[in-house]
Amino acid sequence: MFLFSLEGFSPAALSCYGASWNRTEAIDALAARGTAWDRTITPVADPVEQLSRWLASASFPAEQMTVVTDDERLGELPIADRIGELIVIPTRADGVALTWEETNLASLAAIAAEQLPDNPHVWMHSRFLTKCWDAPRDLFPVDQLDEEDLEPMDPSESIEHELNSVGDVRSTVPPILDETQPPSLLFDRSDDPDWIMAWMRTYGCQIRLVDAVTELMCSVAEASGQSAMVLAGASGFALGQNRAVGHRAGPLRSCHVHVPMISSVLGADASEVLPGAGIRDRRVSSADSLPDVIAAMIKDSKTSPISPEVWAARDDERQDDAPSDVREARSDNSPSVVTSNAGVNVAITTANWFYVRDGAQAQGERHDGAEQCEPDFSRGSHGLGHLFLKPDDLNDVNDVARLRHDVTEELEEKLVSQQTAHE
Predict the structure, then answer these.
(1) Domain-by-domain residue ranges, the chain?
(2) How far, in Å, CA of 39 to CA of 1, rounded?
(3) Cα dihedral 200/231/397/386 (nearest 10)
């Protein structure tokens, strides 16, 4: 088993998760011959805490695991003693690499590749997406993009032509950025939206590096006799949602807790028919299920971890022809994933809704360095939280809490009751 996980890993930049502005062909192929979870949610906002939860699971083969990482915090966890062997590779901050083979992630992959032939389970975990964006910028085809954007058009129909009298309106924002320091930014409405797109392309470039390394590691793992691979995220990344760009930047929203998870068989014959290949699980699931997925793949790598009874079942939530009373009965907000931050329940994701408490931040400190007060969650639920329809409102654009006080109250009560039970 080979596990590849990343901090700050956004499914919004993966083409197999619907990204139209970025291509990830190797990851797409992984999903095509395996199982992809569309709505995996982290139960904690802190990725280090998520790593700890994985290691603490009885299903996670930590004792037989060789871990190769650039995250020194993993070795500082109290539960890290469970790890069979831990190899920490420091991150070099040498600027943008000339080739992807010279990047920090490629160096990490080279060490992990050496471990694959002699170890039953290898885990490669990286935080380069939140620490050092050193991927070569030519991985993202900016020149080709510019040619498409600058196609000739009738000057009389051009907005630029109409506004020439007040000056040049062409954007001065570069299409892609050379900064290696990942951003943590909140944009005003007056800011040029091209800046968000420039940061998205720069992040997409890093994801294309992940795609290249995924293809390499699949090949090496298969040649080393590994039977399965799992690709997962420990936390998400804001790419313009609510005008925030960065890891744990801005208010806590779906983008911070929604992560990719894909499992796939390695070494299968091209002509072999694999049960459950290409399955998409659209149910809400917790990232805590990763150890169980790994255990299932170790037991039988050629069968999807999701049983046919589950992935072949009809989605009741999509039965639009059902009577209204039946549809209402089905909207019981179950299954669901509660997300906590600093030990406080702050959000809940259900099949139909994402509810987040007012004042909940993706991280525990303000971007301006000032000390942040603990949000007051003791008030009435009306006006307290934000409610977004799922999965339709993918980027949490339309807050409908004012229209569905009943759902807001129900989900707020669920957060409170689970917090009380935990304490």
Answers:
(1) 2-137+198-311, 325-422
(2) 23
(3) -130
Q: Do 76 and 320 touch, CB atoms closer than 8 A?
A: no
Q: Which residue has the higher pLDDT, 253 or 147?
A: 253
Q: Using one digit for the tens of pLDDT, what is the confidence trace for 306-344?
A: 887 777 776 554 444 434 443 443 444 468 999 999 999
3-class SS at 258?
Answer: strand
Residue 103 tokens read as 């990047």
- The strand pair at 261-265 and 228-233 is best described as antiparallel
Architecture of the domain delimited by 325-422: 2-Layer Sandwich (3.30)
Does the pLDDT at position 209 exceed 50? yes
Calpha distance 337→384 (Å, rounded): 19
Topology (CATH level 3) of domain 2-137+198-311: Alkaline Phosphatase, subunit A (3.40.720)
Report the distance separating Cα 388 and Cα 393, nearest Å: 6
**CA 208/CA 104 separation, integer angstroms:** 14
Quote the percentage of the chain above a pLDDT of 70.
82
- pLDDT (0 to 100) of residue 141: 86
DSSP states of 76-93 as a string?
Answer: GSGGGGG-SEEEE-PPP-
